[in-house]
Amino acid sequence: MVEIKIVRVTDKFDKSFRKLKDRGLKDKLIKQIEKVKFNPDFGKSLTHDLKGEKTIYVKPYRMIYKLEGDILTLLRFEHRKKVYE
């Protein structure tokens, strides 16, 4: 298992996170990020155009991230209906 040493956040993820008004949802998202940091294989692997990325469901949103060695990059956090567009 790879130990995550660096967490990067894309502008798109940061913008979505800052828009969240629901404190409970923010807390759930932070918990999921912590789970991924300690177990990078936690999420579901994506296929086709999104190969190499993983997803985690944080009801009703999805967090999309990518692992590159010991670097975790948080790509997107959007409603499940829009995230794959």
Q: What is the count of DSSP helices, taking H or I runs of 4+ residues?
A: 2
Task: Specify the CATH architecture.
Answer: 2-Layer Sandwich
* Rg from Cα: 12 Å
Structural class category:
alpha+beta
Helix share, percent: 25-40%
Counting DSSP E segments of at least 2 residues, the number of strands comes to 5
Identify the CATH homologous superfamily: RelE-like
What number is the mean pLDDT?
A: 89
CATH fold-type name:
YaeB-like fold
Principal-axes shape call: globular
Task: Please identify the top-level CATH class.
Answer: Alpha Beta
**Please, how many domains?**
1
Low-confidence parts lasting 5 or more residues at pLDDT below 50? none
Keywords:
YaeB-like fold; 85 residues; globular; 2 helices; alpha+beta; single chain; 5 strands; 5-stranded mixed beta sheet
Protein architecture, described:
This protein is an alpha+beta fold and 85 residues long. The protein has a single domain (6-79), classed as RelE-like (YaeB-like fold, 2-Layer Sandwich). The protein is 29% helix and 34% strand. It is built from two helices and five strands; from the N terminus they run βααββββ. It has a five-stranded mixed sheet. It is globular, with a radius of gyration of 12 Å. The termini are far apart. The model has no long low-confidence stretch (mean pLDDT 89).
